[in-house]
């Protein structure tokens, strides 16, 4: 029974020494002196704020992309025991003892280090020689810009890691397709492709470019499979479903899971709440939830409510009125109704309270049982403090003369009767009998007499002059002018009014709202709203000292100063290896020209290279050249502030193209022994220059040792570079 113990247990393993050595060198170049400098470096001031908010579980919105990358950085802070207490207010600020600098920078550094062996394996899977693959990995290893970007709490190295992992996984899957379809390893690499793609998109939306490229390549490969007569229809269907699940369904599920974890972690109210809807704010702990928790759900006749505009940008505001009236004449000579002003006010105030009144009854309290207001019902809105009715009429609004003025009606005993009936239209209703609900219902108020819609025009225009206390204009807008979110309102605070007397009612309006019914948003509702905010919320783009255009990147006519020591000349710059960047551009040009030449010649049935070499050339170009194109060209269409680091994913693919072109030239153009020897010598000399440039610029890559003013001037290889030299 125990006979198997008579023989020793032997485990054999194949170790790729190249991979091990490259991984170790990648770790050394990225992890060496990782804690230096002990100060905030460039965009760490930006990402650090989000890490602190994660540590404190405070909700935030970042319009730069999905939350997965931020969560990875926060994981580093969590593993290092960071409590979130640090003021991320300026670049160069010294880190305090409670900030685990090494831990916060560790994950980006590891991702950057692993990009080196990934580059090697990608070229191996593209059927390039191990020598070419080793060259690609060494070029990535010695690329100064990639080293700089991966040594700090930034996301580009993480993005590039997942992009390369996705490409490698798909290539391994595709190569297994010919020999072992539906095997365990086949499924592993296919599923890992989908996972890596979703992670890349989850770090930054730039990951979508490579994801789309891989989907296109997968579609092209499947199209070729359709023409394979050896595959049955059932087999083709299984292949199609496998790819659909792995490359579409799994990434979608994972993308949703990133937001699920994000929202589960950030359950507390914070400064970013204000751009979200009232329903979203009320779902967070603290903030609005403290006010609205337990409010009545259904709005009834007699309800006391505050109405928040749904648009919520550039600021939130509530329907508001006060005792001041519109001036008899405006500055441009136009006249007004001289009625009580109605505005949209960006702060909580007792004058934001309104009472929903039944036009057929005089009472301003909720009956027992309450009579709910439904879609299509006619109501009057009574201002809680002044008891005047919300009104609009055929008088031009103060700032929007083509729209109607909205006011609270004052009876001056002139021929201007009150027009204060409004129809409630619930825009997000499920049926025409829906009840108007607190927070959840988005409501449009349509004026019965004129069909104008209540609109906070000040959110998309100018504020009122001094006579309107710089508050936001509210108008009656004709529906024929189109639909806009500024026409939608939702009830934020709500109570059932009990006091018929005005003085008692004023006391009631000043008291907090606390009742019995709570409201919770589903995850999908919160995800949809947050996703929409991320896609549509745009911070005002301003010209940055180190911003650049996409054209500047190819020739590296720009740099970014990441950090400057307060006293010495030590500094860190995002600068690439000049030889590598120039070589990458040359390789792309050579590849393009040779491809056009081969295509023209093949069209004339002249085949200059063997078919297997042509397939390698095309597939390598599709991955490396295509990866460069899809990660670079879209920036010409973007209206946003751009920086040199946006080019790094494209640069990585372009670097991978260099050994492909060199191997092709060596194999097919250098045919004699002498030419091959000369070509090899040139490559050695060229690679020595790459290493020389890496060493030359390493002081501004790692920030140490500090250089003198003369040494810094010697690094000023281009007039457009901004190397910082202190005045003596």
Automatic annotation (TrEMBL):
<dbReference type="InterPro" id="IPR016093">
    <property type="entry name" value="MIR_motif"/>
</dbReference>
<feature type="transmembrane region" description="Helical">
    <location>
        <begin position="154"/>
        <end position="174"/>
    </location>
</feature>
<feature type="transmembrane region" description="Helical">
    <location>
        <begin position="186"/>
        <end position="203"/>
    </location>
</feature>
<dbReference type="Pfam" id="PF02815">
    <property type="entry name" value="MIR"/>
</dbReference>
<keyword id="KW-0812">Transmembrane</keyword>
<keyword id="KW-0256">Endoplasmic reticulum</keyword>
<keyword id="KW-0677">Repeat</keyword>
<dbReference type="Pfam" id="PF16192">
    <property type="entry name" value="PMT_4TMC"/>
</dbReference>
<dbReference type="GO" id="GO:0005789">
    <property type="term" value="C:endoplasmic reticulum membrane"/>
</dbReference>
<feature type="transmembrane region" description="Helical">
    <location>
        <begin position="578"/>
        <end position="600"/>
    </location>
</feature>
<dbReference type="InterPro" id="IPR027005">
    <property type="entry name" value="PMT-like"/>
</dbReference>
<feature type="transmembrane region" description="Helical">
    <location>
        <begin position="208"/>
        <end position="226"/>
    </location>
</feature>
<dbReference type="GO" id="GO:0004169">
    <property type="term" value="F:dolichyl-phosphate-mannose-protein mannosyltransferase activity"/>
</dbReference>
<comment type="similarity">
    <text>Belongs to the glycosyltransferase 39 family.</text>
</comment>
<keyword id="KW-1133">Transmembrane helix</keyword>
<comment type="pathway">
    <text>Protein modification; protein glycosylation.</text>
</comment>
<keyword id="KW-0328">Glycosyltransferase</keyword>
<protein>
    <recommendedName>
        <fullName>Protein O-mannosyl-transferase 1</fullName>
        <ecNumber>2.4.1.109</ecNumber>
    </recommendedName>
</protein>
<dbReference type="InterPro" id="IPR032421">
    <property type="entry name" value="PMT_4TMC"/>
</dbReference>
<feature type="transmembrane region" description="Helical">
    <location>
        <begin position="68"/>
        <end position="88"/>
    </location>
</feature>
<feature type="domain" description="MIR">
    <location>
        <begin position="370"/>
        <end position="427"/>
    </location>
</feature>
<feature type="transmembrane region" description="Helical">
    <location>
        <begin position="246"/>
        <end position="267"/>
    </location>
</feature>
<dbReference type="InterPro" id="IPR036300">
    <property type="entry name" value="MIR_dom_sf"/>
</dbReference>
<feature type="transmembrane region" description="Helical">
    <location>
        <begin position="642"/>
        <end position="662"/>
    </location>
</feature>
<feature type="domain" description="MIR">
    <location>
        <begin position="296"/>
        <end position="359"/>
    </location>
</feature>
<dbReference type="InterPro" id="IPR003342">
    <property type="entry name" value="ArnT-like_N"/>
</dbReference>
<keyword id="KW-0808">Transferase</keyword>
<feature type="transmembrane region" description="Helical">
    <location>
        <begin position="95"/>
        <end position="114"/>
    </location>
</feature>
<keyword id="KW-0472">Membrane</keyword>
<dbReference type="Pfam" id="PF02366">
    <property type="entry name" value="PMT"/>
</dbReference>
<feature type="transmembrane region" description="Helical">
    <location>
        <begin position="674"/>
        <end position="694"/>
    </location>
</feature>
